Please model this.
Amino acid sequence: MKNKIIWITGASRGIGFACAKALAARGAKLVLSCSSQETARAMKKEFAETPDVYIMPFDIRNDVAIKKVVQKVKLTMGQVDILINNAGIAKFGAAVEMSIEDLYDMTAINFRALVQCTQAVLPQMIESGSGMIININSVVSQKVFAYCAAYSASKAAALAYSRSLREELRSTGVKIVDILPGATETDIWDDKSREESGTRMMQPGDVAAAVDHAIQAMLNDRLMIEEMVLRPQGGDL
Model:
């Protein structure tokens, strides 16, 4: 993994931040995306002593901005070897009360941005005959939970896209893997839920370890991990 160029979206906190820490320790060159200049400044302090870490804040809902990031990375560092589509948001509540604006936000970030980031790096991966795209999805894309309809739909769309893309790309050498975590203690949960059920949740570092394992395994040209489902030892909340 040393010197691989890895782009992580939504890298400022939670699973994305844990992945950044784990992969930096492996010697990877990291491009870390976040949503604001303020967040970028905090991240620069966090990684100040870590070589080859580049912080790039931008609005992931903007397809022009996505293309500019990839162009800048190519000019300054080289081709993205691994894309980790981690950026995501969740809003929970009764389906009848979910606003169309909230639905649009989740679709834009959880599905549309994943597609746009993938399309931005895919041509160069296909041309080189190698590359990995790792999508951080959720168990909600496969299992039914109440008060989760819109979020589940956005994640299910991403999973269906990824599964189809995997079949499309098999002969190219590009690898597609989906990581489907269950309850993980991040700020996707409100304070009350984390206080009451935090001890039953996985930690972001647990998911990052699975991502690290998937990358290490998929450096084998003969092998592709397709999907990894991760759940707390005690099961779903």
Helices lie at 14-25, 37-46, 63-76, 100-128, 149-169, 191-197, 204-218.
